[in-house]
């Protein structure tokens, strides 16, 4: 097989036919509902099926916060569970909110053929769901999964999802242009809903001095932070070389590393990498009520990513008024107008000391700008926009409706 699957010239016609089938199914469903005795309070709430759903992911907690009482939330644990749900008839309207796609074809398959078969099974399940009047909403979290093993099968899946979706949510305003060479997003169903900040989600009642004392960090130290799940695509190994070099001229430089070990790293190897002077590491999950220790103790958040589309940690940094040194990737340019975000080419060795000197870390200047950004992307705004989108879809309105 070639690495790039050609565009399907019949996809447009199939999309139109799919839309017509769904319109008929929904109209039939509404007619049946009208014929049933009892409306309003007697009507069952519409169901939102979230997959995959991660209980510890604060983003999902935010966007689903306003679903009740209009919607109920169900969270199938596995792809098999989800397919069973999709093929089961339901008395109430249903919306599938699809998030990360990696579990569908990247997990479990051992060969390209198995991955393609998994994609086909899933798309067939979507067809059964939409034939029954179900609605499909997809949030594009990544251009491609970070743990990409079967590219062609993933492209097949992504193109199939976009052809069937009633709404596609992009959090990065450049998403459509970034994925267009691989799977174009139909403009008539694609909306931009920016990633939320974490105001009010993470506990925040420690002072800077209290946070540093709790971690054993000197009050006058210059402190960098690597936070969140530790995975190779985040560029940690390359950055540690820059940190080690910088400490030769800045012996008071401290690096905090806090997060669970993700795919691609093992604990022994990662601990060996982090066995450096000036590094304080906590290699396990950090609950939201404990994150403030690390965020309040730091001067700068470091994000030396090799790839990223929606860097949620930028929004977490804003929540705590923390400036960010962010990888200068084309996918992240929409953030570089922010005065508290500085682009850095982490793909080659950098003079970290000179960079820190040139980057304004004065909290009196940076914190208000970051706080304004966090207010603009407040979680309450994000959850309300998401719920409004679902409500509009149920009413037969375009996802582009205000």
UniProtKB/TrEMBL annotation:
Primary enzyme class: transferase
Keyword Transferase: yes
Assigned keywords, A-Z: Glycosyltransferase, Transferase
EC number of the protein: 2.4.-.-
Transmembrane domains' residue ranges: none
Matches recorded under Pfam families: Glyco_trans_1_4
Single Gene Ontology MF annotation: glycosyltransferase activity
Name used for this protein in its record: Glycosyltransferase
Originating organism: Herbiconiux daphne
């Amino acid at each position: 097989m070639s690495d790039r699957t050609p565009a399907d010239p019949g996809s447009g016609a199939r999309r139109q036919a799919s839309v017509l089938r769904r319109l008929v199914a929904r109209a039939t469903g509404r007619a049946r509902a009208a014929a049933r005795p009892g409306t309003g309070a007697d009507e069952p709430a519409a169901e939102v099926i979230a997959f995959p759903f991660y209980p510890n992911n604060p983003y999902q907690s935010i966007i689903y916060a306003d679903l009740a009482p209009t919607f109920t939330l169900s969270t199938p644990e596995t792809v098999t569970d989800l397919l069973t749900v999709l093929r089961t008839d339901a008395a109430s309207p249903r919306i599938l909110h699809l998030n990360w796609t990696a579990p569908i074809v990247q997990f479990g398959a051992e060969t390209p053929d198995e991955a393609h078969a998994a994609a086909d099974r899933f798309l067939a399940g979507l067809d059964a769901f939409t034939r029954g009047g179900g609605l499909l909403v997809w949030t594009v979290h990544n251009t491609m999964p970070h743990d990409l093993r079967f590219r062609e099968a993933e492209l097949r899946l992504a193109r199939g999802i976009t052809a069937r979706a009633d709404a596609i949510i992009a959090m990065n305003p450049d998403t459509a242009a970034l994925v267009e060479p691989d799977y174009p997003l139909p403009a008539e169903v694609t909306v931009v809903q920016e990633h939320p900040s974490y105001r009010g989600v993470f506990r925040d009642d420690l002072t800077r001095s209290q946070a540093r004392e709790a971690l054993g960090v000197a009050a006058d130290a210059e402190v960098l932070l690597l936070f969140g799940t530790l995975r190779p695509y985040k560029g940690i190994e390359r950055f540690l070389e820059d940190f080690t070099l910088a400490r030769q001229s800045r012996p008071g430089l401290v690096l905090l590393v806090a997060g669970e070990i993700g795919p691609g790293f093992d604990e022994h190897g990662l601990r060996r990498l982090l066995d450096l002077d000036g590094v304080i590491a906590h290699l396990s999950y950090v609950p939201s009520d404990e994150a403030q220790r690390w965020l309040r103790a730091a001067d700068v958040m470091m994000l030396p990513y090799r790839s990223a589309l929606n860097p949620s940690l930028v929004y977490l940094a804003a929540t705590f008024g923390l400036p960010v040194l962010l990888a200068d990737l084309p996918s992240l340019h929409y953030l570089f107008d922010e005065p508290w975000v500085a682009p850095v080419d982490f793909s080659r060795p950098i003079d970290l000391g000179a960079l820190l000197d040139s980057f304004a870390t004065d909290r009196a200047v940076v914190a208000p700008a970051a706080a304004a950004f966090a207010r603009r992307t407040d979680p309450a705004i994000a959850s309300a926009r998401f719920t409004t989108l679902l409500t509009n879809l149920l009413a037969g309105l375009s996802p582009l409706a205000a």
